[in-house]
Amino acid sequence: MDGAHSAALQLQQLPPTSSTSALSETSFSYKENLIGALLAIFGHLVVSIALNLQKYCHIRLAGSKDPRAYFKTKTWWLGLFLMLLGELGVFASYAFAPLSLIVPLSAVSVIASAIIGIIFIKEKWKPKDFLRRYILSFVGCGLAVVGTYLLVTFAPNSHEKMTGENVTKHLVSWPFLLYMLVEIILFCLLLYFYKEKNTNNIVVILLLVALLGSMTVVTVKAVAGMLVLSIQGNLQLDYPIFYVMFVCMVATAVYQAAFLSQASQMYDSSLIASVGYILSTTIAITAGAIFYLDFIGEDVLHICMFALGCLIAFLGVFLITRNRKKAIPFEPYISMDAMPDSYLHNRQLLFKRYSNSRNVPHHYLESL
């Protein structure tokens, strides 16, 4: 009887023990989420400060008689150091928090750039004109902060260790292979229209950037997670999947930068920032949800609130970037109307003389 009674007491003590371990695991996941979010916010904030420092250095040198090159100034090197520090913080954040939480937090850099631009503005405005000019930036910053708060609060809590076995298991899973097939087909179609049909629409270019960026963040999380585990003593660098992910990370980042450079030559930077943020964040969250199963086990309320946070952050970034000054296109000082009649008459004679000649290149005639 005593043995049966003691066994019954042990069985009654099991449920509280299991619930306590589940509670500690949940609190640990929230702690990791918080660490990752803080690292990402810190990284994006420092990167924004670094870019504005380097921009200030270029502007100051251009407006002065200082013969030094930009890379010989302390301000530019301070900006470079802060940029590397910020990128390191963003890279490390992927090892602690889900991809779906880290990616949308890039809105912090847009908020920081807007605030820095307002604080260090050089023109003097009356209070009424100042509020009227920057009302969209103020509203956008508020919406972006609210969206960021919802993202951090209702982000998924999937915290799977990035071991070589887990990364390989996700890589060969049929949902991700199907997603990769769809993405490759879509990427090839967009690249065909962009290269062969000369479709230079901003959505086409930034969709190419977003598709490459989704693979970049997926591989970054794998590489960062495996590096952190290796530093903690669980060596993961002897798995071939680590080097596969590393090569994919570098390759997609390089091609992504190339497409962004081409887009910046044709479109305004504010338009690229808003449209690119929306497309890249949406596709990256989708890739993370399929590859890392970020939203498995989450209830409908958390998913809906997370989606609402994304939409509010999207709207905030759009309002912030819409208020930026657009670059004034270059206009030549001398117009065709101001040219002498003799100059125009000579060009017409040259065109008539060479238009019937087969040895003159076509582009030369067009220049005439």
UniProtKB/TrEMBL annotation:
GO molecular function: magnesium ion transmembrane transporter activity
Main location (coarse class): membrane
Record's GO cellular component terms: membrane
UniProt keyword Transmembrane helix, yes or no: yes
Compartments in which it is found: Membrane
Recorded topology in the membrane: Multi-pass membrane protein
Membrane-spanning segments: 34-54, 75-96, 102-121, 133-152, 172-194, 201-229, 241-259, 271-293, 299-320
Keyword set, alphabetical order: Membrane, Transmembrane, Transmembrane helix
InterPro entries: Mg_trans_NIPA
Family from the record: Belongs to the NIPA family.
Protein name: NIPA like domain containing 3
Organism: Macaca mulatta
